[in-house]
Amino acid sequence: AMRATIKELRDERAALLAREERVTHMVDVADREYRAERKRFDSALAETRDEVKALRAKAASEANERERDRARRGAMERESADAREVEAALSRRRDALEREVEALKETNRELRKEAVRAKTTGQRAEWLEGEAEQTRARLSASEATVKQLRADLQFEKSNATKFESKLIAVVKEKEALEKAHQAKDAKIEQLQNRVDEQVKKLGAASSELQSLAATKRKDADLSARE
C-alpha cells in the first residue's frame, strides 16, 4: 500500500512537472508573441503618429493659405468695387458730356439758321459765322472728350471683368482647399481610430500574458508545496 501511495505521489508530481513545463512553454510563447506584437505596435504607432503630425502640419499650412486667400480675395473685392465705382463715375460723366454735345449741336444748328437769315447783313453774318466756328470747335473738343471717356470706360470695364474673373478663380480655389482639408481631417480621424485599436489589442495581449504568468506562479507554488 505504501509503495502504491509513493508511486501515485510520484506520478502526480510528474504530471505536475509536465503541466508546469507546458504552462512555462505557453508563457514563453505568449511572451514572445507579446513582445513581437508590441514591437509591431510601437513601430505602427510611431509611423501613425508621424503621419498624423505631418497631416496636422499640412492642415495648419493649408489653413494659413486659406487665410491669405481670404485676405487676397478681400483686396480683389475692394479693387473690383473701386473699378465699378470708377466705371459708374465715367458713365455718368460720359452721359453728361453727350448731353452737352447734343446741346452744342443744337446751338450750332440754330446759329447756322441765324447765319442764313442774316446773309444780307454782312457784319452780323460774319459774327454769326464766328460764333458757329467757335461752337464747332467746342463741339469737336467735346466729341474728342467723349471718345476718350468711352475708351476709359471700356478700359475700366475690362479691368472690372478681370477682377471678377480673378475673384471667381480664388473662390473656386478656396472651395477646393476646403474639400482637401476635410479629406485630411477624415484621414486624421481614421489614423487616430487605428491607434486606438492598436492600444486595445496591446491591452488585451498584456492581460493575457499577465493571466498566463499568474497561472505559472500558481502551478509553481503548488509544485513547491508538494
TrEMBL record:
<feature type="region of interest" description="Disordered">
    <location>
        <begin position="56"/>
        <end position="86"/>
    </location>
</feature>
<feature type="compositionally biased region" description="Basic and acidic residues">
    <location>
        <begin position="216"/>
        <end position="226"/>
    </location>
</feature>
<feature type="region of interest" description="Disordered">
    <location>
        <begin position="206"/>
        <end position="226"/>
    </location>
</feature>
<protein>
    <submittedName>
        <fullName>Uncharacterized protein</fullName>
    </submittedName>
</protein>
<feature type="compositionally biased region" description="Basic and acidic residues">
    <location>
        <begin position="63"/>
        <end position="86"/>
    </location>
</feature>
